[in-house]
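Request: Not sure, any thoughts?
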Amino acid sequence: MTDSTNGNEDRLESNEEIASMAQPASRTPFATAKRLERARELARAFAVAQNNASLYPPSHPLVVQSNADLVAAVSGIMDIGFEDVTINVYKGTLFIENHVLPEESVTHRKLIEDLLAREISSVTLDMSFGEADASALAALLNEGGISDIDASIAFLEARGASAVKVAETTELDEEVREAESRQNKMDARKDYDQGVGLMRDVETQVKLGKVFEVAPLQSLVSNLLDNLFKDPAAVLGLTAIKSHDDYTLNHSINVCILSLSLGASLGLDAESLKSLGLSALLYDLGKVRIPEDILNKEGPLSADEWQIVKSHATEGADLLKRIQLVDQMPMVVAYEHHQRHDMQGYPEVQAPSEQHLFSKVVALCDAYDAMTTRRPFRREIRPDKALAVLMQGRNKAYDPSLTKALVAMLGIYPMGAVVRMSDGAVGVVFRVNRDDLLRPRIKQLIDPAGRWLEQPVTIDLRLISAQSGTFSLSITECIPAVEAGIDDVWQYL
């Protein structure tokens, strides 16, 4: 069965063009040789200020000059789009923002050791950073009596260094964070599986002509929403779960999650999100009344079959009207979700009209999940291509602002996308970097020679090679999970 609601433009925009349009305003990544040099200058200035403070009194010209140089280096970072800058130490390596500095991590070993000796693994400097702050920070790293984070914070506060914030990230913190992340992921999966069961019950009840219970669905939406606020990645990652046998059921849950995530990114309040979520679960209910041989038909539909398929919008609205829901939005969305942004879809309207916001959101999320799922009558479309198709249809089938918001939320390569990198290695996208939609974080599973790794290797594609001053790796293409031999991408998210 084919149901195309896309625009009729000939050319799909490139991933780079789409990213430039959808890229949200955010921190500027270190992505050029100039920015790399600014990061190195800051690391050098920090180390020199610390070293001079250990050799000379505060009034010595070299100390005064090195403090001024540190202030200038921080100012240089602010000049390229930052309101503050964070220096991190992780596993003995120096980072400035998201940029690893391998050479400086060796050259400035004493700086790293003195930070860690005071339980400091993060130093954030804001725009008001001045010479008094630089002096206090350098003095802290030369104060022999300080060996913990609390004393470090107190030292800076006593000297009025308000532009300096230090923090600690211990191995225990990392373990706790990882444990919480695993638990959040399992809680979200439990809700997902429960949701599939609930939607199966709804489908059965409707086929039998019975009235289904709405309360369990409302509880499901509330649970998904709670988990979304707690750990967005854990919930959004569930949409990577695809079932070819239970397509309709999984599709409803995926559209619900995508709609909740998009609605939350738009700033909808909790009650509105609950209404949107319930609408997204039930919008396609009318398809229960469409024969399965038509829904799963390979090839184009006949004119009569197409009329039957189109009836699912009015059938769904009628079913929901009979339930007499207090919330009318599920009925509205069921009726409107195929009318398109330009109102050239179905059911046809006589008077000038416009889709409700919820209908626009659900229509967009419905199209994305449908395109990226394999069906009996067609192969799945790779995620980046699906987003390009949606962008092609903006102003026609889809609301342009919402389409860009969806791309900004998902990234050009969404969570769960299987990608090949420029060195030939293959991995799964497990996090989207909001500051660079083209460069997500990857779990590499297969090396450039095609061998499976014993353990996944985490790669942040924003990082720049210290030798070349350019990106170390980039994505060359999305590939089907089955082509890479990956049965379940969700386990890697």
In short: The first strand starts at residue 84 and ends at 90. The chain has three domains: 33-169, 173-410, 418-492. The beta strands are 84-90, 93-96, 99-100, 122-126, 164-167, 418-421, 426-431, 441-446, 452-460, 475-478.
